Amino acid sequence: PLAFTRSPGCMFITDLKNDNVRSLGGVPQVHCISQDPLHFSIVSAEAAQKIKALETLIGTDPGERGVAHLQRQGELLGACLALSHAGAVLITTGFPTHFTHEPPEENDGPPGALAIAAMLQALGKQVAIVTDQRAMDLNKKIIEEAVQLGILKKPIPLLSYQRESADSALMFLCEDGNPGRPRFDHLVAIERAGMAADGNYYNARKVNIKHLVDPIDELFLAAQTIPGITTTGVGDGGNELGMGKVKNAVKKHIKNGDVIACDVEADFTVVAGVSNWGGYAIACALHVLRRCETHDRYLRRALGPPRAPSQGLWLPALPAVTKEEKLLKTLVQLGVRSGKTASLEMEVDGLPFYNIHSLMIEKLL
């Protein structure tokens, strides 16, 4: 488990002799990805630059909601480095904004969640999804369709969380409720209704939808107290789980922000013009990291030969326009509506799939 290095001669002691030393693609960068326990990761400057470019791309705001004010640079890289080190990841999504329809869910969120899950699966990590009890059947159908469409290699376990006692969240996240034995290393919320300061859940129009939302926020609050669990929130309006980290900016710059702002923080907050784009960017960034020799060497603690780049596994897991189009059609058939307009058209957040979402996917790829 240990490797040693020393300056000034830059000798490096490891398990394989290598006199044929060459640069691993640019200068390595060191990034802190966790304070408790203290954990740093290493990545080449070149890979970090690519991920920064992905972050800039998803920051465009075609809905003109003011998301630029919520963005913090480097959050995408931090989140993806932490995910790269994780062994088991729990993802949550679901925003029941259309409370007068059945199902009330909007179609921003699930595609992004599945894009992240697909890449994590390809990287050999354990993935599960947690969602509202009332939406279990809907999510089961979405996951089954995603397997049929070739988005997922295999089905993902689907969980629900209910608060039954003060330590429900701890019991859910850790084996026998023991904080020393967490079941997950990383929690990801993408376009998931987030709790406001008054304990309610609001859509963008200030309507309280608490009766439709299970208290999955408690898992993120509990994770703050459990060493070794990192959290990421992906959102586009400030009322999503994890956006508590930028709540002051939400209150100041987002319409109805003083009421709807989510109060629950995540370690990393990825802000995008549309949340699905954040999911696509995370999938692409994980791919960039896996292809970065500097990061790969660090992941394997400089032991053994470099892993042969089995791109055949990872490339098919990336989002693609054809896959995302089929998934959106499936969501429309299941009655899952566009966020802004509640229409059952090929659109997300009121923006047409073709030439807005399709173009974003192509740019990210």
Short description:
This is GLUCM protein. The chain has 365 residues and is of the alpha/beta class. It has helices spanning 45-58, 75-85, 110-122, 136-148, 168-173, 217-223, 247-253, 257-260, 275-290, 293-299, 311-314, 321-333, 353-364, and strands spanning 4-6, 11-13, 28-35, 38-44, 88-94, 126-131, 158-160, 186-192, 230-235, 268-271, 347-348, 351-352.
* Multimerization state: single chain
SSE order: EEEEHHEHEHEHEHEHHEHHHHEEH
Q: So, CATH architecture?
A: Alpha-Beta Complex
Shape label: globular
Strand content: 15-25%
Features:
365 residues, alpha/beta, inorganic pyrophosphatase (n-terminal core), six-stranded parallel beta sheet, two-stranded antiparallel ribbon, 35% helix, 16% strand, globular
Provide a descriptive summary of the structure in words.
With 365 residues, the chain is α/β, with parallel strands linked by helices. The chain contains 13 helices and twelve strands. It has one domain: inorganic pyrophosphatase (n-terminal core) (Alpha-Beta Complex), CATH 3.90.1640.20. The strands form four sheets. Strands 7-6-5-8-9-10 form a six-stranded parallel β-sheet, sandwiched between helices. A two-stranded antiparallel ribbon has the order 1-2. It has a two-stranded antiparallel sheet with strand order 3-4. The mean pLDDT is 93. Helices cover 35% and strands 16% of the residues. Helix 2 (75-85) packs across helix 9 (275-290). The chain has helices at 45-58, 75-85, 110-122, 136-148, 168-173, 217-223, 247-253, 257-260, 275-290, 293-299, 311-314, 321-333, 353-364; strands at 4-6, 11-13, 28-35, 38-44, 88-94, 126-131, 158-160, 186-192, 230-235, 268-271, 347-348, 351-352.
